TrEMBL record:
Signal sequence, renumbered to the chain: 1-21
UniProt protein name: Porin
Highest rank taxon of the organism: Bacteria
Source species of the chain: Niastella vici
Keywords attached to this entry: Signal
InterPro entries noted in UniProt: Porin_dom_sf
Length: 408
């Protein structure tokens, strides 16, 4: 906790210093709107505040909410939550050499983590080198997760409870893009530290990839000495939308100790596809992602540990009103809905041949108001139906959520 306290004191001191600076020297660095923006550009496509000609720029976002949910009629009552505050620090070290860091404070600083801290060397549009703490580009949400960009308070179930949302590791890799009229082609490829055996040895009692996020040692050493590979290719057309295909895979178990082989190499492999588009005339925005997970689970584990998982989500956002409102010149009112599904254990029981359940369905209608493009106030109604492994009648969770998220 001492280092976190020191960090907070430093941030407070810096903010106090900025408050004493002539405000005319401060300028808002707009989000990058040049060219065709893709999910891989989300890390830099954020608003920053810069002082004069200093090479360092600051930014961030915050989100908080209220919720009242019931599960089979039982509720924990009225809950107020400070979900997260995230700070960005970027610097143009030299032309074509950039640094960006992303530090997240979750649940009132109960969890503090570095989600991104890397240096980019821009060699050419098709060949750029990145090293440091890298956000693994599996799917689209893992990279493009900032709260103000979404009409929904909760992050997708598939991205947080099947895939490990904001999953990052230390490593190196390359990325690039090529433009051709209305088309953009892009790729990313990284080798990083990876998962550990917590994905099948955790308190949830099931195969659970996000459990590896609890291991802070992954930022200084590999659990088993085997690198995790993450790669993605994407294509976007200005009029059609963006399609991405990504893969992440590697050995997750400790298969040797001091040169002695203790187990075979067991892999985890993830394939994801994502797509987003805006329909003409109505400006309906559609964004979806689907992923498949395969884990080599030891035969000594029971069937409650899934060897195959799959799931995803689709968001449909419909602008219904865009006009000056309450002193905001470009305010917008949206209607939206999210459909979600996750199957944590795809397959059948060996003994009976019956289906293994352990899945969840969810629907989330939403109303959102954006006084500016960088701020959203949102009202959600969430309804989940979750089955246990035996397929008993599902537990139903339903209720309202209200909150906001904004860049600053």
């Amino acid at each position: 906790m001492k280092k976190y306290f020191t960090l907070l004191v430093a941030l407070y001191t810096a903010s106090a210093s900025v408050a004493q600076i002539d405000p005319t020297l401060l300028r808002r660095t707009p989000k990058d709107t040049g060219g065709v923006q893709m999910n891989m550009d989300a890390v830099y496509n954020r608003p920053f505040l810069q002082l004069g000609k200093l090479p360092v720029a600051l930014g961030g976002y915050v989100e908080a909410n209220y919720q009242y949910l019931k599960t089979n009629g039982i509720s924990e009552g009225h809950q107020f939550q400070m979900r997260r505050m995230t700070l960005f620090v970027s610097s143009s070290i030299y032309k074509r050499i950039k640094f960006l860091s992303e530090i997240e404070f979750e649940d009132g600083a109960k969890e503090i983590s570095i989600e991104f801290a890397s240096v980019d060397f821009e060699l050419s549009p098709l060949l750029n080198f990145r090293g440091g703490v890298i956000m693994n580009p599996i799917g689209a949400f893992n990279q493009n997760h900032d709260g103000p960009k979404w009409e929904f308070i909760d992050r997708p179930i598939s991205a947080t409870q099947m895939l490990p949302a904001t999953w990052s590791n230390v490593g190196f890799g390359v990325f690039g893009k090529k433009y051709s009229k209305d088309w953009v082609y892009a790729y990313e490829a990284y080798f990083t530290n990876g998962f550990d055996d917590k994905i099948i040895d955790n308190k949830t009692g099931k195969t659970f990839l996000p459990a590896s996020k609890e291991n802070p040692d992954r930022f200084e050493e590999s659990f088993n000495g085997s690198p995790l590979f993450t790669g993605k290719v994407a294509v976007k057309n200005r009029k059609i939308g963006e399609l991405g295909l990504s893969y992440m895979g590697g050995v997750y178990n400790k298969y040797q100790e001091d040169g002695l082989v203790i187990d075979k190499k067991r892999r985890v492999n993830v394939v994801a596809v994502d797509f987003n588009t805006t329909l003409p005339k109505m400006n309906t925005y559609i964004n979806g992602e689907w992923a498949w997970v395969h884990v080599d689970v030891p035969d000594t584990y029971t069937e409650q540990f899934g060897r195959k998982q799959q799931g995803g989500f689709v968001d449909i956002v419909q602008p219904v009103l865009k006009k000056p409102m309450m002193g905001f010149e470009n305010a917008m009112l949206n209607l939206a809905v999210r459909l979600e599904y996750v199957d944590w254990n795809k397959g059948t029981f060996k003994s009976t041949g019956g289906n293994i359940s352990d899945d969840v369905y969810a629907i989330v209608p939403a109303i959102s108001w954006r006084p500016t493009s960088q701020t959203v106030i949102r009202l959600n109604y969430r309804r989940n139906q979750q089955q246990d492994i035996l397929g008993n009648p599902p537990a139903t969770t339903a209720g309202f959520q209200f909150g906001f998220s904004t860049y600053f």
